[in-house]
Amino acid sequence: MRAKTCGRLAGSLLAIAQCTGNVGTADAYELPAIPTEFPPLRPVEVPQVKKETLPNGLRVFLLEDHERGLVNGKMLFLGGIRGEEESKTGISSLASNVQRSGGTKKYPGDQLNELLDSYAAAIELSVGGSTITAQFECLSEDVQQVLPLFGEVLRDPLLPSKELDLFKSQLLSLIMHRDDDPGGIPYRELRRIIYGKKSPYARVPTLQSVGSININDLNAYLNKWERPDSAILGLVGDFNADDMLELLRSEFGDWAPGQGQPQEPSVLPTPKPEGESKGGVIYLVDRPGLNQAYVAMGELGTLLYDPDVHSLDVLNGILNSFGGRLFNEIRTKEALAYSVGAAWSPSLDYPGLFVASGQTKEPARFIRAVQNVLLDCTESEPSVEVLKQAKDTALNGFVFNFADTNLQLARIMSYDFFGVPEDFIYRYRDELEGTTSSDVLQAARRHLHVGDQPIVVVADAHSVRKELESLGMPVQDLRLKIL
Predict the structure, then answer these.
(1) What does the DSSP 8-state code read for residue 81?
(2) What DSSP assignment string belongs to 151-184?
(3) What's the rounded Cα separation, in Å, for the pair 15 and 28?
């Protein structure tokens, strides 16, 4: 049987070969010439967003897209992790999970889920560093049924104690095991060293803070931050903007801040970073038996509005990815690490971070090699070819900011929410295009202070201490606490 099958297969291949001519010869096919001229790209079209502010202060952004067949909605509130009290660190995550999973007073958790399933719809909540985000998605023909459910989750959540107990137990378990993966330790501890352990930019939940949270705390947190006059609601999809605005007025027009809340919404704390680090210290976290070292070093970065932000973005491209300076020196030439990277991450209303990190078996050599690459960035301009490649990489990705109307509306909402000029993305592109090698060098000199950067190393201390001390920098033991 197998012989017959092979014979039939050989015959079929022979027939194909006879039909296609001289398969495998160099002149069998003539490939078209590689094009050298291309038609101009279509101009970027700015979406027409209808904006309205309801009498209760809720800002509404509507973007019609009749090709979607769906309606996507997103509401942003101030709050998030920075809105937590220090003694209740972790409450933002618990609140968003319990608020969604617990359902509403009219439709408790399972009933709400079944109802949403019947519409093939979804409602989700999440938290970030500065925001609480609530989202929904549904078919356009079901929006009149799903939008009220979305409103109920936000305005009238059930918040059952059993759901809080469930998510508290899960979060407590995560805290107990968060150091099981050593790769997550350096970046977390570096943030705490640079910003300060009690800073809202770097705090982490503890067993004590999570254990103390109760339902009254959840209610207080949600009443403080989830209010219409500090929120922005955006919808994109297959609808008529005027009709949708009327629907939103009927659903959210009578929404008011919770009882006992001040007339004006709360503002997020923006303390100055007060790190405890003295420059050039190596903080060593002992992990006995670990055969690799995890390393992170860094310093305060920039705000999004810093005039050097576009030059630093170009430098990010020069340092990273295949062909980047770090990759070439640390991995290709020195064979010190499989993965290595460094980047500035600017923030909107407080300084972001610059962090360089990697995993290696020789932490002292790795640290010195990374420092040498960074120092070189402050001493010599990138070549014209290297500069062009980094700029092209950044500029070629610009078009993806407009690939989807949902993403476009999300960006427009975020800019408005945080007070970013609406044309920021276009000005940023123009500044990026005009960046020169000299700009990159001067930005590196202003923002890279290699000898003053604290360094966190997670490794077997007995194996690496001597080699780290050979760098001539103080080596300080760092003990982790979860309480």
Answers:
(1) G
(2) HHHHHSB---HHHHHHHHHHHHHHHHHTTSSGGG
(3) 17
